[in-house]
TrEMBL record, chain A:
Name under which the protein is recorded: Uncharacterized protein
Organism: Asanoa hainanensis
Swiss-Prot/TrEMBL keywords: Membrane, Transmembrane, Transmembrane helix
Lineage: Bacteria, Bacillati, Actinomycetota, Actinomycetes, Micromonosporales
Segments crossing the lipid bilayer: 41-62
Domain of life: Bacteria
Automatic annotation (TrEMBL), chain B:
Chain ranges of the RNA polymerase sigma-70 region domain: 11-71
Superkingdom: Bacteria
Protein name, as recorded: RNA polymerase sigma-70 factor, sigma-E family
InterPro entries: RNA_pol_sigma-70-like (IPR039425), RNA_pol_sigma-70_dom (IPR014284), RNA_pol_sigma-E_actinobac (IPR014325), RNA_pol_sigma70_r2 (IPR007627), RNA_pol_sigma70_r4_t2 (IPR013249), RNA_pol_sigma_r2 (IPR013325), RNA_pol_sigma_r3/r4-like (IPR013324), WH-like_DNA-bd_sf (IPR036388)
Coiled coil feature spans: none
GO biological process: DNA-templated transcription initiation
Alphabetized SUPFAM superfamilies for the sequence: Sigma2 domain of RNA polymerase sigma factors (SSF88946), Sigma3 and sigma4 domains of RNA polymerase sigma factors (SSF88659)
GO MF entries: DNA binding; sigma factor activity
Boundaries of every RNA polymerase sigma factor 70 region 4 type domain copy: 104-155
Species the sequence originates in: Asanoa hainanensis
Cytoplasm keyword on record: no
Alphabetical keyword list: DNA-binding, Sigma factor, Transcription, Transcription regulation
Family membership: Belongs to the sigma-70 factor family. ECF subfamily.
Record-linked Pfam families: Sigma70_r2, Sigma70_r4_2
Amino acid sequence: MTDDDQFGRRLATLLRDELSDVHSAPNLTDRLRGRARRRQLLVGACAVAVVAITGAVGLVAVPGADRADPELVDVAHVRTQVTDALARSTDYVVLARTANGAPYRVDKWTDAATRRVRTDWYGDGKLSVSVVVTNEADGGQRGLQIDYLNRWYAHWQRTPAEMEHTFPDFFEDLPEANPESISQALADGTLEIVGKETIDGHETLRLRLETEIEAGPTATTPTTMELWVDADSYLPHRSTITTTHEFGALTRTTTYTWSERTPENLKVFDLTPPPGFPGGKRR
Amino acid sequence: MRVDPTFDAFVERESTALLRFAYLLTNDRGHAEDLLQVALLRTARRWAAARDRPGAYVRKILLNLSRDRVRWLMRRVRERPLAPTHDEVAAVGPHDHAVAERHLVVAALARLPERQRQVVVLRYFEDLSVEQTSELLDMPPGTVKSHTSRALARLRELLDDNDNDTTHLARAHHD
């Protein structure tokens, strides 16, 4: 046993002794039933209130009325709903469109169910490179890259052992605009509910997440993620990720499209090199 | 609320252990009791999914809830912390070394960043493996290890500071 483990176990013994007189209420299940009944009454009352407000909306605008919604102020509830929604991302083909300043943009499609990712890079408004990567169950990867500017393509493959010896990606700690990163930020960060907003015709709930990402053994980078989630499904509709560095702040805006996994929608991963492009295999 | 009788049995059996876990996450007895009730209600509503590993299920909810700023949003008066403050500990007489030592550990744990506190509580108080902790926190095992290492180093520092201030206190971490 290491020194750390011995120290940790000693601390645990002290903590257990300290909490030995902490006991839950003997009638806890009764309290839970009472609380559940009160919640049902509250939800019923809210439903009536929503109908009433909807009926009156043409007559009176109430500043801050959104904030009165109990569902809005319950951060824990929203966190759980968004986390649960993101966990269902395997049910969808997700398109994340990130603008890095026009005319440059990146489109990334993810099919979590088959671990396939397609990324398209646009420069000067034109598609320049497409890559489809399939993450194999054994930890390896295979992919196809098409370079439209230089007119060539390549199939490649990496074994699990080769993946372990891949050069470190210095940007790997930066949060990506994808369900996994958002889930991580939800788990790690401080969540604040900003309010309701209509974005591109979508009723959304605007959330703000403050977190820090590791930027080396001792340094962290403050990160703010703003998230607009669909008011019904809680799936992300838009995100902005702002990382603060010594040279200033960098913000990326991503818009998400969640499509059913129909054969038509999955065709996006069937990438084929254009006729006449030279290509081959490379490791 | 219609509940499977096995849920009642689970609450009866585990609620004290879960309350202690919630208390270490929040350092607030009243807040811990609130979080536990919310976590158990959610578990009851999804008992079919939770019943195979209800302890882990509730702990995962508690970990998520403890990170929220619910304590302000619940609009309730916050109770006085169970653990005494540093000054109060320093005033404890030499015959209360063991008590003071325990209070110091609770206070030091409360000063850790959220993730480090969670890792220490899961790894040592709950006696979970790195892999089990990794699963509950949704973080890679390597990150669990690094958080554990940093947390223990920080706890050593905090307890060393207290040792220097109150030399009569037992040196638990030097055992």
